[in-house]
Amino acid sequence: MTDDQLLRYSRHILLDEIGIEGQERLLAAHALVIGAGGLGSPVALYLASAGIGRITLVDDDTVDLTNLQRQIAHATARIGMAKVDSAMQSMAAINPAVAVTPVRARADAPLLSELVARADVVLDCSDNFATRHAVNAACVRHRKPLVSGAAIRFDGQVTVYDPRDAQSPCYACIFPPEANFEEARCATMGVFAPLVGIIGAVQAAEALKLLSHAGRPVTGRLLMLDARSMEWNEMRVSRNAACSVCGGTHTGASGS
Length: 256
Description:
Strand order of the largest sheet: 3-2-1-4-5-6-7-8
Number of strands: 8
Distance between the termini: 28 Å
CATH topology: Rossmann fold
Strand content: 15-25%
Helix content: 25-40%
Structural class: alpha/beta
Number of domains: 1
Radius of gyration: 17 Å
Number of helices: 10
Largest sheet: 8 strands, mixed
CATH class: Alpha Beta
CATH superfamily: NAD(P)-binding Rossmann-like Domain
């Protein structure tokens, strides 16, 4: 670790749970972030500031004026720019040493299979069930930990799905793909601006914990925030042995 790195990351290094070894793990890590919007903005900025060595950012959208109420990685001058390119500029301004790969594309199954296989951790910052299920399926297939977040109106949720852990559910265990969940979009329902910052920051924290081996991730615990009262509720969630995605994949596996 260079003198510049020792200084830049000194506040992490001072933490017994991280230290130099943990920070070196972060510097060597590769994070895949799906979505560069409300959740992806704080996730991308915090991962970059913390020194994740490589970050791949996937989004097919461009910056719009309506995004700027909450998507803090973007700016008025970048309206019309690809979100991945806009976010990359903000990340580089914070930490130019981080290698950011922008992928301006929809996160479909073939692309996800390729990108997830290369990552150490995946952060789902998307805003629709189809993408979340595609991300989850790729993570189960490649046995990569998934930090999942969602936010709409004043309600947010976050958890970690870890296919390496025999006890961990996957996203489909909790939200089966065959279930007819009503899709809620912020374009029609609205979203409280700081909510995505709170949930995104928790997602970043969980990814950093997984990568640095600090603390205990929230695997098996779905954290739900009601920002109206600023109250957190926790629901224990377990793997569904009959899950159409991960059922049977843990046979003989040991917890990580």
